## 1
Amino acid sequence: MNMKPEIVETVKSIATDEKVKEALAFLEADNDATTNEQIELTGIEAPTFEEWTRGKVYQEKLRSLGIEDIQVDEVGNVFGIRKGAGNGPSLVLCAHLDTVFPAGTDVQAKWVDGKVYAPGISDDGRGLAVVLTILRALNHAGIETKGDLIVGATVGEEGLGDLHGVKHLFSTRNDIDGFISVEPGAPERITYLGTGSKRYSVTYKGPGGHSFGSFGTANPIHALGRAIAGISVLETPADPKTTYNVGVISGGTSVNTISETAKMIIDLRSNSEEELANLEAKVLEILQQAAVDENTFRGKSDEVTVEIEQVGDRPAGSQSPDADIVQASMAAVAALGFEPVLGSASSTDSNVPINLGVPAVTLNGGGEAGGIHTLNEYYDPTNAHFGPQTILLTVLALLGYGETAEPVLPKRQAEVAQK
Ligand SMILES: [Zn+2]
């Protein structure tokens, strides 16, 4: 694995600074308090599109940690600023407020054998708590960065939230030079590629009728079946990984009724924008053709129709593993004695900045996470402090710190001006 020696040296010098050592030790000592705060935040329901209550609590926590200019924007993102000494880049550090669990889910924590069970405890309860413990550690050790830390939480990261929080963030501000989002998982793993996805809700409609009496009427469920048959044999590349899935189907009222509607939701993904567009074009063609084929087979012209609604659009994005933000993250992992692992692409808040050309990584909060997105989601806090320690070192390297280190992260504005 290629690591840039100058960045490795920078991070090493940061990690051996007295104040930084104090901050790293604080993160270890704060592990239990962090778990408790994670449990507290997880216990406030926050389904996608209903993050408001949790967001208000998060805003208060940021305020109590001295974060300035905290704003809750129109969509519910909560961000403030921890000012640096000046003249440095601006880096976002955030986690997401929302969970995949609907309102009414029991989100109260239960301890079993050293693990905390609660839906959302890891994803992204861990990320939210990690951001706060890092702020406490910086404050505790009296660390001033060179650049500004834009710190907070996004909405709408999960499912049909479609990354709308982070999309809104980047559509409304242009002062962001780099971006770190925190998700659950092993601290040595770095996500620097974004999987793009397109999602469609597809509905076939027809006149319907009695299964026997009206036999010969074009049938929406049969059209849906034709479409699925067509989609299910599409060939897609293994690299860049490109996939499809018909994830939900519904329709029909009884066994002896020709249904009036049939519906499905389709998920298309790729690590390449181009392959995603290719796949999308083929699928859209199949969806239309299935209606035509069903009508033609029954000798009808337009009895069955299809309505196609796009319900998801997450941009794909890639950047080089040599990008400074990736290198700083790897150097931070190595400085703590771990072997950095560049993770395969996934779909997180970082997709949006990566797609826009803003350096971004998703880093992991540490501890052991499991059962993510299920009612059995859990978190094991054993030695979880390696997560926030890695992220703290990455933040300090990117923003620059004291006499020890110039910012690794370039200011984007300056870069643009030079070109
Ligand atoms: Zn997440």
Note: The first strand starts at residue 68 and ends at 72.
## 2
Amino acid sequence: MTEYALETRGLGLRIGAAVILDDVSLTARRGELVAVIGPNGAGKTSLFNLITGVHRPTGGSVLLGGRDVTAMAVHRRGRLGLGRTFQTSSVFPALPVLENARLAAKAHLGGVLNVLKPAGSDARATAVARDCLERVGLAARADTAAGALSHGEKRKLELALVLAQDPSVILLDEPMAGMSAEDVPELTELIGSLRGTGGERTVLLIEHHMNVVLGLADRVAVMHHGTLLALDTPEKVMADATVQSAYLGEPL
Ligand SMILES: Nc1ncnc2c1ncn2[C@@H]1O[C@H](COP(=O)(O)OP(=O)(O)O)[C@@H](O)[C@H]1O
Ligand SMILES: [Mg+2]
């Protein structure tokens, strides 16, 4: 088995004359939480889009568990264990929270356990869905229509839907966006717990809250103008003069 759950090698993305990403080589070990930081427009979301397969790079490669997935479609990467947050638009607001989680679990189980009979897969999907809701603290809201959840609860549901895919690598793009300050500690703990009890999952987290990043991350990747400026422990990254000068006048 390869050392890295996820690796990008010299990843590049050009759109017309614009260089969106240039020579980004990033690694994440199994069970590692890597925070991706950088000012707006640095290329963080574009990097995630290349890793998940939403966009194809114009250079370099993406490896998942040592396997080159650069040319692979989004759903096939999902089957190989790459989990991404569902956009809020993929949550069915009129359906109960449990049903939303069940659909996510069924989509995943349908992909990996298609030998199961529908009845068996239904019971299994319900069990997975309940477990995921429990893990994000939404069990008591199982029968509530997803559209009636508070903003914070919707973010938790999105995390439950990712967990329902039982991914080995999870990509989270600003999961705290729009959260009120008092919800941040709980969501921080929840994100840390996504790694699983045995620390078996790898998490890549784009996040602006530096207290969250410093508290959770094993390593921090600093993006700036489409390049990877630094990839190191939070302490070393914070002390890095290049990182500091890149951020001069720009809040981290
Ligand atoms: N589809 C696109 N076409 C042209 N430019 C894009 C496209 N998507 C992103 N960009 C540009 O790429 C740069 C990086 O954007 P993005 O990855 O969203 O940064 P971040 O997530 O770090 O804020 C920005 O300058 C943005 O304007
Ligand atoms: Mg972004």
Note: The longest strand covers residues 4-15.
